[in-house]
Amino acid sequence: xxxxxxxxxxxxxxxxxxxxxxxxxxxxxxxxxxxxxxxxxxxxxxxxxxxxxxxxxxxxxxxxxxxxxxxxxxxxxxxxxxxxxxxxxxxxxxxxxxxxxxxxxxxxxxxxxxxxxxxxxxxxxxxxxxxxxxxxxxxxxxxxxxxxxxxxxxxxxxxxxxxxxxxxxxxxxxxxxxxxxxxxxxxxxxxxxxxxxxxxxxxxxxxxxxxxxxxxxxxxxxxxxxxxxxxxxxxxxxxxxxxxxxxxxxxxxxxxxxxxxxxxxxxxxxxxxxxxxxxxxxxxxxxxxxxxxxxxxxxxxxxxxxxxxxxxxxxxxxxxxxxxxxxxxxxxxxxxxxxxxxxxxxxxxxxxxxxxxxxxxxxxxxxxxxxxxxxxxxxxxxxxxxxxxxxxxxxxxxxxxxxxx
Length: 405
Ligand code: C2E
Ligand code: CA
Ligand code: CA
Description:
Elements: E1 3-4, E2 10-13, E3 18-20, E4 28-34, E5 37-43, E6 46-53, E7 58-59, H1 61-66, E8 73-76, E9 80-86, H2 87-96, H3 99-114, H4 120-129, H5 135-156, E10 160-169, E11 175-186, E12 190-192, H6 194-203, H7 207-228, E13 235-239, H8 242-245, H9 250-260, E14 268-272, H10 275-278, H11 281-292, E15 296-302, H12 311-314, E16 319-322, H13 324-329, H14 334-349, E17 353-356, H15 362-371, E18 375-376, H16 387-399
Parallel strand pairs: 11-13, 13-14, 14-15, 15-16, 16-17, 17-18
Antiparallel strand pairs: 1-2, 2-9, 3-8, 4-7, 4-9, 5-6, 5-8, 10-11, 10-18, 11-12
Helix pairs in contact: 7-9
The structure holds ligand C2E and calcium ion (2 copies).
């Protein structure tokens, strides 16, 4: 039997072991990490070897793409380790492909599947003709598929944890709440940045279980922090991807979680980027339903997207988070300062709260205080920290008059 390694994304096969047989259902495709695999088809009752695949090659992808039975068999020629790619991972990408690409792919797969039945010799030849492209050409894609498989395993093995970064009143520096920022420590890759893995998760439905996990942990941790400082209302900002909002169950689940932890909707700030206005109208409806239910909606990375401001005439949000790119230049670029002040005026004119991200120095803080920004976030006040350290920080702050040092 194939042996699942310490990370369940890896599958180990012994020498001579069958990876799959002709006629089997296509449940997994594989990227070979090490070892050699022989692919063969049966012609008139005899197994005809077609190809030897080695490290970096993909196998078993066809049956996974069109959910038809395997048209060839694969056997490990020596001890072989593969990254397993689930049929779901592939079918989601196929479903989301450009309709023209999908049609061409369906046609190609159908042709490959149906033609071999004409003659046995043709079958062997065609199967040989349809080989994956060279590993060099596909390296980037394969790396992404590997990362995605490992991320799925990481979720199962609880290697994903949020860290929390303080958000403070920019005038008084009192801590008002925290932003939950996901962290992944992979045993094989080390720390993987959320910028890298959330984009992959968002391309597939993986963002949904990851997002649920974040909501659950962030709400649980907020309730614990809140218990430690009664009478000092804290909030939690949580990043939400459009794909999560497109799930019909999103609001119901969110309400169940906050009820479970005795929190109010106003303590949860859902951070979305302007993408939500451009992508899925269902997600936008869900966002508005969340707002009506009392959750706070903040537009993240404000000022960096390409969408028009027109959406603000139709959809109300509660706050803007002005991107760190503006703060970085605020002391050196007069135009940036004017832009930042205009964004603050726009937000305040619409009755919205402003958060400025990425404040690293006292000089930047002084300019932002004078500009009338409401809330600040950045290394000056604190980096994203694990929950235990945030608890300690709050305890210290409590004994020092609720003000960050
Ligand atoms: P974001 O939502 O814009 O988060 C702010 C990012 O700025 C964080 O990066 C934070 O560590 C970083 N940052 C905060 N203050 C400073 C500062 O003073 N200087 C500098 N140089 N950086 C600062 P991080 O944690 O690497 O997260 C990157 C992005 O990944 C986030 O950007 C967010 O878009 C995404 N992300 C993180 N966690 C989640 C999550 O749970 N769900 C989703 N959908 N996305 C997430
Ligand atoms: Ca954010
Ligand atoms: Ca941001």
